[in-house]
Every structure is written in C-alpha cells, then in structure tokens.
Request: fold
Amino acid sequence: MTIGVIGSNSFSGINFCNYLLSQGQEVLGFSRSPLKETAFNPIGTEVKGFRFVQADLNSDQEMMFSEIRGKGVKYLVNFASQSMVAESWEHPYLTFNTNVLSKIKLYSFLIKQKFLKKYIKISTPEVFGSANITSSSYKKYNPSTPYALSHATIENYLLLLFKQFSFPVIISRFANFYGPYQKLYRVIPLAIHKANRKEKFYLQGGGTSRRSFLYSDDFCEGIYKMINTAKTGQTYQFSSKEYLTIKKIVKMIYVKKNLIPKKYIINVKDRPGKDKDYKIYDKDTRKQLKWKNKTSIDKGIDKVIEWYEKYKNNFNQKDERFKIKV
Reply:
C-alpha cells in the first residue's frame, strides 16, 4: 500500500517518511519546499519506494488531488501546518489559510474518495491552553494563540465530518517532539548549536514552563500504530512520563557540552500567550495501541548531539538561515 504524507519535508514528516520506508512501505510525499540538504533531510529523490511531489497545500491542490487519486492512497497523514506560535500573532491570516481554509478544501476532496481508509490529523495539546489533562474525554478547548485556535477549529470541523459523513478521521495530539534533522530554531537543537559555539542562550520567560518531549522514533511509532490499529473518530494522545522545565533541558545540554549553564543562560521576556504547562493524559493510548515511548530525554539529547556533530560544519552561518520564512 502507499501511505500519503503531506508536509513530508517538515521535521516530523521527514522522520515519519524515513520510518515508513524502514518498514517496507511505499510513501507518497508532498511538500511546498524542495528536498533539502542532507543535514536536515536524509531522504533523497532516488530512494526506492519514495515518490516526492513538490506541491503547496494552499496553491497546488489539484496536483495533489491527482496524485492521491492516482495512487489510491488509503492512509493519509497530514503534517502541513504554519507551526510557529509567535509568528501566528504576526501573520494570523497565513496561519488560518494553511491550517484551516486549505485543509477544508482538502477534506471536500477526500470525503468523496472511497479508497481512503484513515486520515490522521496531527494536532497539539495547545488547543487546551495551560491545562492538566487527566482524562481522554477532556474537551475544554482554551487556546491561547492564533496557532492553537487554528488547530482547535479544524479538530472540531473534522469531528463534525465524522459525525455527519463518517469521514475516517483520527485525531492525534503529541507532546513536543525532537530528534536528529530538526531545524535549529527549535529549543533542543538551538541549545546544542549555541552551546557548541559557546554562545549565550536567551530563555523566554526564564524557561519555567514545563513540557514533555518525545524522541522522533517514539513519535513515528505512535503514528504507525494509529495507521494499523486505531479506530476512526477517536482521539489519541502521546506523551512521555518526563515533565521538565525548558530551563532544565537547556541546562542539561550546556552541561553535556562541558559548560557552566549560569554563565550562558539569560532570562528574557516571554512571548505572548505562552502556556505554562502541558500535561497530557495518554493512558488510554498506551493501552489501546500498545504503545510506549522508549527513549529518555537524556539519551535522546545525546543522539541529537551526535547528529549535530556530524553536520556541525554546515551550521556555521547565522541562525537566521534556519528560520521559517512566511
């Protein structure tokens, strides 16, 4: 079977495509950007079982529809998103155009395709704001940013499609994920990059917010479990059992690079609408999908450092090179 992946050049998409190929699956990948350099993308254009189509969800939908129809894609995973939280305040139209309007057009096409067995929506616990989620039935939406609001909106629309038309959606919410090939504007690779250069790290809000982080292999296995065993119309949440402050994670990285954290970590003002904590309930997911995360944050960071060391000569330019351009 061919598994479709929209947003295949995103960090999560790249890792999931690579995971699928390792499982012997055929992959049809879509991304608005061309295939990137190997430092950020281990999949080339000539990899057996992988077909890449450069297409923008906002402007090239007919091309995407033709490819999906031609392959008779039974399982479709969508990572495509305007995913920068702070920038969603600056460019709310772009956020909603990609995360809501263009996806509604996609669903209008998909709902007519009888070959589609499962559509997996990659969402975020940010739809609930800063919350201690203690039940899988928790539904108190309380988004704090345009980014989170866009995900809450499309979640509800998908559940409406399931209710009215049995659209085969599965909604998934993941803790923060990280791993090799992640762009340097994300906190873990950025801290590694800064520590490697013996530069100061400016920590928003003093890094007091608490998060759970999932290593990329655990994240990918969770999605693959949903493809194989999850029920449509259901929501699955994935987390690790390690809840750490951002400051502790950054300090851990500077220590691993043999630096004294207090000399390099500088507290700065927090960004608007930043939630304090995301504590995700995932006991049902672990039981129903027989899934569990296997990589601790300590070992996972070591693997990211190993990747960084391999490609560090590629990362000598200014950090602006690695930021998303909207």
Q: What stands out?
A: Residues 319-326 have pLDDT under 50 and may be disordered. The longest helix spans residues 146-165. The chain has ten helices and 15 strands. Residues 2-177+215-238 form a domain with the Rossmann fold fold (CATH 3.40.50.720).
